[in-house]
Write a structure and sequence with these properties.
By secondary structure, this protein is mainly beta. It contains 7 helices and 20 strands.
Length: 373
């Protein structure tokens, strides 16, 4: 899936696969050999199969040209297949993001039922030649249960707790790690998200209520909670209030919903009538107790309950009971981390230039769900 995103952009959905079916077929042919993974390195694949463009598509139609190269990638016969030969840049730079994703299930009162934190180091590398990099941490003991890109010398990490590697060109994931239970226990939700779900059904004993539709009302309140459980980076400006960015709430409604109308105090709402999913986009929320809660109100019309063979209502909908939706929260907090993992140095050997280097921490939501109490 990451290869498809790299080739076709995000999202690499069904329409992208259909529009680039021939490229998908060529990629799968190179990546898998009789069911076994073969070539999965993006740089090697791009050397063999050029990413699609408007010009390449026109050329393939008019002149029957192919996007498959006749030559093997330059790194195929070397001991570094992830690194192309002859890479050159006028400005050499490398950026690293230490991204920690929080998977959690939170109840309606804001209590964490279960949680897990996993981290990764995402790199964007534009370095000439064949640089040999050494990444060191202030507290490498925070890293637990880690896995690495093939470019990393694993024996060196086991011995010295440093990451030594010759990087691929472009974007890549250097390593993944998880946090121990003691570190996860310190986490508390950065957002308060409470919602009320009420279903109104007509009284079957009143004849006048026969024409009254079943309805439901959903009220969702969101505001910033204390961010004290997160560890801030030393580069963050302490005079500026912390903020949670890219805040969004996804609401998958039950199948009984017929129509829905929404009203929000801030942000924007998009409702997918076919999939019965609403996405409330809030953007940036500042850590300020004086700020009012963001609120969403939804008025929902429900389909009549299904009748079983004996004439009674279906068991899942007895007495008008429609299960409340479980909300999915999406958020990102720059320059913070759950673990406190910090890079102490990034040095380069084998090349004479001095590149520009940047490292930052980011905490974001993974599978983050709020359930009705």
């Amino acid at each position: 899936a990451d290869i498809f995103v790299d080739y076709f952009g995000n999202p690499a959905d069904e329409s992208a696969i259909k529009d680039n079916f021939s490229t998908v077929y060529q990629l799968l042919e190179e990546m898998v050999d009789y069911g076994w993974p073969l070539t999965t390195e993006p740089n090697a694949l791009k050397a063999m199969i050029r990413p699609p463009s408007v010009i390449s598509k026109l050329s393939s139609v008019v002149f029957s040209n192919t996007t498959v190269s006749d030559a093997l990638p330059s790194g195929t016969i070397s001991n570094m297949p992830w690194r192309a030969a002859g890479v050159s840049y006028s400005q050499n730079e490398i950026y690293m993001d230490i991204v920690e994703s929080v998977d959690a299930i939170v109840d309606g009162s804001g209590n964490v039922i279960s949680s897990d934190v996993s981290g990764s180091i995402q790199c964007q590398c534009h370095l000439s030649g064949i640089p040999d990099l050494l990444l060191t941490f202030k507290d490498p003991e925070l890293i637990d249960d880690c896995s690495f890109h093939p470019c990393v010398r694993y024996g060196r990490f086991e011995r010295d707790q440093v990451v030594s590697f010759v990087p691929p060109d472009g974007n890549f994931e250097l390593m993944k790690y998880s946090l121990g239970a003691d570190r996860r226990a310190n986490f508390s939700p950065p957002l308060d998200c409470h919602f009320q779900w009420n279903v109104t059904s007509p009284d079957p004993n009143k004849p006048s209520s026969a024409d009254v539709d079943r309805s439901a009302r959903l009220v969702v309140d969101v505001r910033v909670r204390s961010l004290s459980s997160l560890i801030t980076s030393a580069s963050r400006n302490s005079t500026v209030r912390m903020a949670i960015e890219d805040v969004a709430v996804t609401i998958p409604f039950p199948k009984q919903v017929r129509t829905a109308s929404f009203q929000v105090s801030s942000g924007s709402i998009v409702y997918d009538e076919a999939g019965k999913v609403a996405k409330w986009t809030l953007g940036k929320l500042v850590d300020d107790a004086s700020m009012p809660r963001a609120q969403l109100t939804a008025i929902i019309k429900l389909n009549p309950p299904k009748q079983s063979k004996d004439g009674s209502e279906d068991g899942d909908e007895h007495n008008g009971g429609v299960r409340p939706p479980n909300l999915s929260l999406h958020w990102k907090i720059p320059l913070t981390s759950v673990s406190g993992l910090t890079v102490s140095g990034l040095s380069i050997a084998g090349e004479s230039y001095r590149p520009y280097k940047g490292v930052r921490n980011v905490t974001k939501s993974g599978l983050y769900q709020v359930r009705h109490s």
